[in-house]
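Appendix B.2, paired examples.
Example (i):
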Amino acid sequence: HALNHRWKAVVSTQSTGKQDIRMKKSLVTLLLAVLIVIVCLSEDVHAAKLKQSNLIVKWPKVNKDNRLAKAYYDRAKTEEKEADRLNSLWLSYYHSNSLDNFHRWLSAWEQAEKAPKNQTYPLLSYSIVLPCYNCEKTLPETLQSLDDALKYLHDKYKQVFVLSKRTPPQGEIIFVNDGSSDKSAEVIQKYIDSHPFTDTNVKTIFVNEEVNTGYGPARNHALRRVHNDLIFFLDADDKYKKEHIYYMLLVASISGAPHVWGRVETSDPINIEQLDIVSNTLLMAKVLRREILDLMPEFPDMGGTPELGHIGGEDGIYVMGMLKYFPDYIHMPERTAVYCRHPGNNFDLQYEKWQLPPNKDGSIPDEVNTEREKKTQALQGIAYKKTFSAWDKKYEEMMKAEQTDNTPKKPGKKRVKDEL
């Protein structure tokens, strides 16, 4: 309106010195307005092209009325009551949802919906820890699933990366061959040689141990070599679904949560309640921030006995530490990893037990609570007390140090800095 009024004033008067200046100012203003209109139109055309070419990632609409979100909310409500009733850290480890968790998850997904449209991808760098012991038969499938997940991450990122000129997040895969007596080391080396990863911004590290040290120490070899912000875990006999790394990386980066949980499905069916318990214990369905290592730098060495073999339970103890010291995490409802049963592996040894629902307190039903189970649980209990004694002591020291610095905060609770 102002431009129109000024233009009429200019063309309806005779040119004088002052009017010439006014006319020049009006013309400059008009040209600027035309330029702004052109820029706006080009942005609309760009957005239309973006939509046509499916470069905007379509996220599921998540709100309280959504069927998926409603089911998750109702479940969280029920499990929170159950956890309050028994007031047990051990039960919260099994029933790990809560209403706070639901709202954190909802908030993260709402932000994730907006991120692709704004082309603001503050994705953090990541490391994938993959230990291996005598898994030459299962490794090819595992590595193929890892390949598919990395390709999916790169392809999704590249859709925005081409337009926004942002580099993909830095990644690394840390392989640990824990003294395998089969050809596992050869399978890993062949995979590394045939995958230079030059176009996906991923590098590889191969730790080849001559002596078998055990599952916990094997992971510790890898954790000492981690360089990046987020840490994934994958066992040499399990698999990622192709969406796993992308979804977990995006939610962990945007939310700022100390750890993000997904869920697993199993290659062989088990009781649905046991499935949730198993899913909560496994680190392959989680991603955690490297700052957690400041407090919990290593997995416990569970060892074993000639009678029982490998005891296991490293994941469970570590996850309980994450819950105790870093409770503000996010639990996603999607199942993005596959826990596989193979002859003689941990899943296979516990398959019969997992056919029955657990007792109300989360313990093993009497029918399948064998002598081996009881002895194993007793040894796991000893490892649990020893590990948490060390972690509690370190936690208190860190709290005192931070209070001295007048910066009271929990260790590892850093918020993501927006890369923009």
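Example (ii):
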Amino acid sequence: TQSTWGLSKAIIQNFPKVDIALAYGSGVFPQANYNYQQAPLIDLIFFVGNTQKWHEQNFQKNEHHYKGPSKLFGPSYITFLQQYVCPIHYNPFVQLNDNLRIKYGVVSYKQASNDLRYWKNMIIAGRLHKPVKIIVKDTDISEELQQNLIQAVVVALLLNEKEIIEMRPFFYTIASLSYVGDIRFLLGSENLDKIQAIVDGNYENFKKLYLPILDMEIFTKFLKVEGDFIRFQPSQETINTLIGYMPSIVGYNFSGEKCDYSQILLKFQRKDREKAIVEGLTKINRKSSTNMMFYHLLTNSPFQNFIYGLNKLKKRFK
């Protein structure tokens, strides 16, 4: 995998200023059953202050990174679509140098921060439920990152209401939160074993990421980590506390904004509560994944979309 220093240097040399640069995925963290005989594509996300200005500057330096309609219509067109269709713009298959091939996404810091806090579309929040490497950090986002992880643990606990929870399946639940209802799985363009592969290849990294969260005071009142198990006390008071920390959009998605979803969830039996939460997540992910596919059609060339889809299918049938 690519070194953090090498990636940081390449980003600073080749791109306009970014506030935050994150690296994620199989090119940075090993995944189970992944073929590493050839150098993998490195997945990056850039948080930037102003997307239009950033794209304008990037067009001057790297116009060849943009294909199809995004190249034809330029930064104003891309920024409009990022504002109203999908918050992140991806340029895939970019060869930065002989040894580094990347796919990079660009999102405004404000939209990324809102997603981490409120799970507006879970595109950024979901990526950051899994281990990532912070490559460039010119702005502090530690508070947003922590809130996102706390909410992931809260929802995963509500989906695992039992006294003994195995750590690995618990991480499967967390890794799956942003994939529930994802249209790409329904269309067959994502590997159905992806969630398990992410966790199995990264189990120790997941522990490093989530053990400090599970050790926070809000959780230690009703759970204790013992080795690879979580001892959990899912009392009515505990469930009430967890619902209070759950992102409100998840509740409103199944209850309607005028309803007190917390009271509804408390009255539900465990299975019905889990079903309602999954429904809330499904609505977020179904909409955002559909918008993302639509966005790619509006910004990338047909050839680029075909190659990207083909690579996804190859991963699925490995």
